[in-house]
Amino acid sequence: MGPDMGSALRAETLSPQTTGRPLRAWQQTALSQYEESSPKDFLVTATPGAGKTTFALTLAARLLSRREVARVVVVCPTDHLRLQWAEAADRMGIVLDPNLTNAVGPVRAGTQGYVTTYAQVAGKPMLHAARSTAVKSLVILDEVHHAGDGLSWGEAVEEAYGMAARRLCLTGTPFRTKPDERIPFVRYEEDTFEGEAGGLVSRADYTYGYKEALADNVVRPVVFAAYTGTSRWRNSAGDVVAASLSEAGTKSVEMQAWRTALDPKGQWVPHVIAAMDDRITHLREEGGMPDAAGLILASDQDDARAYAKIVRRVTGKPAELILSDDPKASKKIERFATGSARIAVCVRMISEGVDVPRAAVLAWMTSYRTPLFFAQAVGRVVRSRATHESATVFLPAVRPLLALAASMEEQRNHVMPPPRTQPDEELEALDLPPREPREGEMKQWEALEADARFAHVLHSGTAHTGEGSGATVVVGEEEEEFLGIPGLLTPAQTAELLAKRDDELRLRIAASHRADDGDFMLVEDHPDEDDAGRSWRDAAELRREINKLVNRVAARTSQPQAVVHTQLRQSVPGPPSASASVDVLRARRERLRTML
Asked: Where does the record place the Helicase ATP-binding domain (predicted)?
C-alpha cells in the first residue's frame, strides 16, 4: 500500500473525537445528498462561519478512502488561505502542499494533493490541467465567485479543471452574475420577476443560510451599532461644506461626509475605536469571552497605519497591523487568531475566509460597500463557539451600509436564497470596490474635521435609538453594561445604554488627544513557531537548509552552485528539490553535510 492511500485510509477512519470537531447536522445532510448521486459538480452555499472547510475535507477524505479520487486540489483566493487549508487538511490526515509553485511540474511525492490560488491557476492553466488529470482528482474551488469571467480568471479555471473527475464549489454568500459573466461549473437558471424574465441566477445544490445557522447556534447573532456625526471638508472649489452622516441629502454629499468621517485626523475614528474597545472589555470581563478581540477594516494602508496609532493612543494597547504587502502578513494573522491581542487593523486581509473565531467585534472604517464584501467581512465575527456569544459591528450611519446591515438582519427571519438579478448598475457593484475619483478629480478636496455621535442600534431590521420609547426602561445593576448580550437586554435597552455611554467616550477621547502622542509602537514580530510534524513545512525548511549547504559547498570547492546541485542529484537520485519528497530532501541534506 502506497503512502498516499495509507493516509487516505487514516482520514476515512477519523472519528469526531479524533478530529475534535463532530460534523454538524447540515454537513451530514449535505454529505448524504452528495453521496446519493456522486455528481461531477456540486455547489454548496453556506453562510460564513458555518464550516465549509470541514465539510469539503470530510468529503475529500471519504472519496480518497474509497479510491474514487487519488488527488485533492484546493483553489482559494489568497496565499494565507493556502496555509489555512493545509493546516485544516493536516488535522484530518490529508497532506496538502501549500507551497507548490507554477515553476514546479509534478505534485510532490508523499502528499495527497496541493493548495493553490486563482491567480496561480490563471498564470499556467495547462500546468494545473495536467496535474488534475494525471490521476483522478477532486478539485475544491473555495469562494468560487472569484472564478467569474469578469475577473479574467474564469476561462483559466475552466481550462485547468474542465476535465477533472470531480469538482466541489464553495461560497460563503449567494452570488449573482450578469448573463455574460457565468462562473465555470455553476448551474444557472432563468430568474423571473412578476412573470417576466429577469436574467440568470446561480443555483446551489445545497444551501445553508444565516437563518438556519443562527437557529443551530452555529453563528452568533449580530447587533449593528451605527454612529453618525457632522463632517466638515473643503471641496475642489475651495468652499467649506458641513453635513451629517445620517442626513447628508444627496449621494455625493453623503460620500464626502463618509470619507471625511474616516479621516484619521478627525474625532469620528477615535470615538468609535473607544466604543469598540469598551465592547471588547465587556466581552472579556462580563460576556464569557476572555479572549474576545476586534477587527478594524481600513480603506488603504496609510489609513490602516494611522488607525493603529489611534488604537495605541486611545486604548493604551498596541494594535496588530496586517497589510497585504507585508511578507509576514500570514504569520501575523495566525498569531492574532491564536493570541491575546485585542485589536487588529487591516485593509482587506481578513475580509474573506480567514478564520479568527475569537473576533467578535468589527469596526467598519472603510469605503467598501458592496454586498459581497459586506457579507464576507461581517462573516469574520459571526463564527460561534458557545451559545451565549454575540457579535457587534460598529459602522457609519450612511444609507449604503445601513441597507446592507438591514438586509443581513432580515436573513434571521427568511431563507437566504440566491438574490434576484438587478439592473446593470447595481450588478456592476456586486464584486468591486467603490469607484475612485479620476486622475485630477477633486485633487483639492481636504478633510477638515468630523465628530461622532451614537445614532442607533439596528436589530432585526429595526432601528432603536434609546430615546422616546414612551416607556421607562428599568435596568438592574447586573444588566447595566455596555451593549448587553441579545436576549438579556432588549434592543431598546441596548440602544439606551449605548447612548448613555456615548458622553463618557467623548470625554475619554478628548483626554487622549490632550496627552502627548509620542511614538506609537505596533506589536513586535515574534519568532517563528515550531512547525515540526507538518510534512509540507518540513519540506520547505529542508529546501532552505539544502540551499544554504549548497552555497557553503560551492564556496568551499570554488564550484558554481549549479554544478553542486547537479552532483547532489546524481548522488541522491530523484526529482528536483522543489517537488522532492521529505525523505529525498533529508538524504540530500545529509549528503551535503558529508561534503563539508
From this structure: 33-192
> Where is pLDDT greater, at 577 or 54?
54
Number of H helices, E strands in the chain: 20, 20
- Residue 430 belongs to some domain of the structure: no
Give residue 50's identity as a one-letter amino acid code. Answer: A
* 169 and 294 share one domain: no
| Average pLDDT over every residue of 361-377 | 85
Q: Do 378 and 491 fall into the same domain?
A: yes
Going by C-alpha positions, the residue among 223, 308, 232 that lies closest to residue 269 is 308
Between the CA atoms of 334, 337, 338 and 341, what dihedral angle is there, to the nearest 10 degrees? 110
Instruction: Measure the CA–CA gap between 283 and 290, rounded to whole angstroms.
Output: 7
CA distance linking residue 583 with residue 573, whole number of Å: 12
Burial class of 237 by CB neighbour count within 10 A (0 to 12, 13 to 18, 19+): exposed
Count structural domains, the chain. 3
Return d(Cα 510, Cα 270) in angstroms, integer: 10
Report residue 189's pLDDT band, with 50, 70 and 90 as the boundaries.
Answer: confident
Q: Which domain holds residue 250?
A: 220-414+445-514
Asked whether residue 329 is assigned to any structural domain, the reply reads yes
Examine the domain organization and report whether 401 and 498 are in the same domain: yes
pLDDT value, residue 317: 92
Mean of pLDDT over the chain: 77
Check whether residue 352 and residue 236 sit in a common domain.
Answer: yes
In a domain, 424, yes or no: no
> What ranges in 140-250 are assigned the alpha helix state H?
154-161, 210-215
For the chain, helix, strand, coil in percent to 5 are: 40, 20, 40
Which grid cell is 277? Answer: 474597545
